[in-house]
Amino acid sequence: MTSTTTWNVYLSGEIHTDWRETIAAACAARKLPVAFSAPVTDHEASDDCGVAILGAEPNKFWHDRKGAQLNAIRTRTLLEKADVVVVRFGEKYRQWNAAFDAGYAAALGKPLIILHGPDHAHALKEVDAAALAVAETPEQVAALLAYAVTGRLDG
Amino acid sequence: MTSTTTWNVYLSGEIHTDWRETIAAACAARKLPVAFSAPVTDHEASDDCGVAILGAEPNKFWHDRKGAQLNAIRTRTLLEKADVVVVRFGEKYRQWNAAFDAGYAAALGKPLIILHGPDHAHALKEVDAAALAVAETPEQVAALLAYAVTGRLDG
Amino acid sequence: MTSTTTWNVYLSGEIHTDWRETIAAACAARKLPVAFSAPVTDHEASDDCGVAILGAEPNKFWHDRKGAQLNAIRTRTLLEKADVVVVRFGEKYRQWNAAFDAGYAAALGKPLIILHGPDHAHALKEVDAAALAVAETPEQVAALLAYAVTGRLDG
Amino acid sequence: MTSTTTWNVYLSGEIHTDWRETIAAACAARKLPVAFSAPVTDHEASDDCGVAILGAEPNKFWHDRKGAQLNAIRTRTLLEKADVVVVRFGEKYRQWNAAFDAGYAAALGKPLIILHGPDHAHALKEVDAAALAVAETPEQVAALLAYAVTGRLDG
Amino acid sequence: MTSTTTWNVYLSGEIHTDWRETIAAACAARKLPVAFSAPVTDHEASDDCGVAILGAEPNKFWHDRKGAQLNAIRTRTLLEKADVVVVRFGEKYRQWNAAFDAGYAAALGKPLIILHGPDHAHALKEVDAAALAVAETPEQVAALLAYAVTGRLDG
Amino acid sequence: MTSTTTWNVYLSGEIHTDWRETIAAACAARKLPVAFSAPVTDHEASDDCGVAILGAEPNKFWHDRKGAQLNAIRTRTLLEKADVVVVRFGEKYRQWNAAFDAGYAAALGKPLIILHGPDHAHALKEVDAAALAVAETPEQVAALLAYAVTGRLDG
Amino acid sequence: MTSTTTWNVYLSGEIHTDWRETIAAACAARKLPVAFSAPVTDHEASDDCGVAILGAEPNKFWHDRKGAQLNAIRTRTLLEKADVVVVRFGEKYRQWNAAFDAGYAAALGKPLIILHGPDHAHALKEVDAAALAVAETPEQVAALLAYAVTGRLDG
Amino acid sequence: MTSTTTWNVYLSGEIHTDWRETIAAACAARKLPVAFSAPVTDHEASDDCGVAILGAEPNKFWHDRKGAQLNAIRTRTLLEKADVVVVRFGEKYRQWNAAFDAGYAAALGKPLIILHGPDHAHALKEVDAAALAVAETPEQVAALLAYAVTGRLDG
Predict the structure, then answer these.
(1) Which residues of B16-32 are buried (b: 16+ CB within 10 A; e: fewer)?
(2) What Pfam family is a match, any one (chains A, B, C, D, E, F, G, H) (predicted)?
(3) What ranges do the domains of chain G cover?
(4) How far apart are CA B89 and CA B92, in angstroms?
(5) Model confidence over D117-130: pLDDT tens digits?
(6) ipTM value > 0.90
(7) Is the domain H7-40+80-150 a CATH 3.40.50.2300 member?
(8) Cβ-based contacts of B4 with chain C (< 8 Å)
(9) Residue in chain B nearest C44 by alpha carbon
(10) What does the pLDDT look like over B17-34, one tens digit per residue?
């Protein structure tokens, strides 16, 4: 009994590799009824959007605040609309916003998939423990989504 | 005043007989605006999906856990989207996941229909008591849905 | 700024006059984007649906229970989906289910419109006090909906 | 395993007989940890409180509205705090506020007990169908509460 | 990863200038998938709708009440459906309903954008502090929405 | 049936007269089980708390933001804990935070009492329409609370 | 930083062994601030409470329904009040009400501990997958609670 | 108007310095009615609790999972009970669980205070943007709490 509803999947976290496109392409190849959304993935825009639109701030703290709050308009709206939330932790940076999004999604009761390499397993154990799946590759995430959406396990 | 909205009906529980198809066919024959969804009904896929996608586990407990959590991505998403939840208890097996789904649906306030033979009536009394209807056959479920959706009692 | 979304309006209460059709026709004449839904308005079907579908009950109390619970599958689903709930109290009968629906809708925070003649005003004061409008005629309800949906006052 | 928490029980509905005192006395005799609350049971005060405190209204409709809204401050606060809600329907009057309270409590997911004589069974079938118990006497309600609170069935 | 879902944006507050049309035009020029809604912006209709539809009231207080409650049918329905809420404070009048809507939206967890001139900054500090953005011009609001919806910062 | 639970009442709004003390004294004189809470009523502290504790801000906008957010820690916590919310509008200032609190309380479903002089009636009609009582004097508020809490109308 | 709040723990499921007393004694020995509650554990009372209090039913189905609904008054009230829910599956019977309670608790977001022997692991995998701990002995449950409540791991 | 209710404050995050004790001591010196709670702050216990209580796991991933889920029993229970949540980010480690807790608290609508040194300001901007206060020292947090709880700004 194949669900024909479109599933909304929010892809949070790391923005320096093409993991989102990999997942999207692998789902498109399977013709899955999945619509993806994501935070702003242009790092510079994400940092500077606040002052670019609302005016400059000499103090870096408020420069950052203005931008982070604009980003939250997008992030929270899309995260609330999502059926499933995927959060990827990459190799670099603190990525606290990724963990924040994971906590936010968990508190909303969204099914959560965490994607990271084995090196981060211990540091992410509290986050992983809130997830319904912990994957190591984008291909696994696509396979997970295919299974969840179609109810069938690929050949 | 006939509702024209599509009703989402989630068909939880027993996966070894064709009761879902019977209900769906009986609703299709009545041209009801009903969309059905269901958990994964391929028993083997349901057991092994976790390790098939995310890697083998030597310990059966974690083998099962990985699979059960993948199934939950599908189950909870579809159950949350459902307007009405039908849970069938068959003749065999423990079927604790069916009872779990019934409890989950009840706590979400979803209208609940339980489907089982008369032999299970006493053992299922707490579950039946949370339901708005207790049916014995898939045909009754289809008739119930027809009545709920169209507001008319057939011939 | 005219809203183009369809508004779902649930018409609860009295089932022995054609007030629902009057409202629907008056809204259709105004080409409002409103979709109506209603409980089962065939009194006999509403009383007997339970035993007709699920089997006879010698005890009238359980005969009624079976039917009332089937009706609740329809009622609660449509009431939850509604943007606005209208409840009409007619001249006859106890109409406790109408008042029950009004309380249910109020607790869900649905905008509530109560429709009744002036004779019932005192007896309905607690119900009216939970409403955003108290109308005396179906035409007033249609005018209210037109105003709420289009944001414009006719004529 | 006897619960020692106090249970809050809201006694809604009919205000012309001493059914509340009967239940309270029967629970006190059993030394149950139950605290009762109720709407205003002085009919005249309940009708006139609004204008008595906030100033006269020449129009009866607004006289009633002012009073009904004051009553709602009490009713909703106590109903929200309640663990269990009992609603009694007496022999006389329309009692739409009783049915309204039952619907309100049902939508909040409160365990609901309905108390009425057998004559009203058919007219109250939709309300009864939302309840976990339908009793005919205050003594039965006290016995129900004793069972729910202590987990023991009296000799 | 461009979201293709339509975003519902509710434009609350000041009704004496064309700021809503300015935002809508600027979003239309960018071809954004945004649908706008608004309270009734015809001041006279907003004041008199209640008595026009439901009958005259000699007492101004109840004249106003009837109208304000009709307006609330529209306002709350659209505000609940909104993904993002924008509230504008103009130069004149008390505009308490604008601040009320901002509080209402904040309690619902809606992303909130406040639009006002610099003169009101101190008086609006509690309201601004609940917002994700504080803009001074409609053009800024359009730019904010473009960023939130497309995830891209305009040239 | 007198409720013995303590009622939590949050007194929001105007901070330049002693209306809170008047209500509290009038309730104390009646020995009501009511506990009052309030926002910070020291105007200067309320304006400057942010910079006093967290460090100076040269920009007035962020000076205000820091303070307003500290105030929100208190306000939202107490407002969420309240059973009943009273909001007073005085003669002076914009008082947008009062209207914001009223909207916030309304969206949370808190019983709302608005207190203001007759001059503000028209400007506050949308706010009043969300309230269960509109009072003109603190004495009326105390009388309302006495009635709601004890269920008895004073001699 | 030891929490001094009392934790409410609901002990659902199997009623034919003394596992509840074992957990309670082990927690008492550790002087933990934990209050336990449970469903009715007298099997006969649990089956017959409905008819004993509300009158006999010739039809076994309704005999069971009456009892199951009375039990639900207790069960749902205590389960809603619980901070943590423990569900035990024993060796015998279908125990569908245990699985139902687990699903109900999961949907409410209650931290869930499942207690069962290794033989049931596969059949319970969907239920276990919703739990934060799967224990095999009552002693383990007591140790878990001690850790969760005190934040210290016993010697 | 001094609130006399006890405020529950959850202190999440970094566990290698004595910041919790500093805040608690500073609040105790002010005699504030504040009760603190915290996650398990014994790093080793936090890592090994799962296997210590429920049995060893050869695979480190499941060793971590068991422990992380036990910790979640404590964390989520205390976080849900909290009125205010403070999250500290220290100098070392990834601290993803701190950011996860901040997201979790934000989605629950808890007033959030973030505590970190200036070096982390940019990396934490999304987290800070969800907070009502960003402090640099435990003393500032104590001063904030004193202000929020008493409504008075210390000399």
Answers:
(1) eeebbeebbebbeeeeb
(2) Nuc_deoxyri_tr3
(3) 7-40+80-150
(4) 8
(5) 999 999 999 999 99
(6) yes
(7) yes
(8) 35
(9) B153
(10) 999 999 999 999 999 999
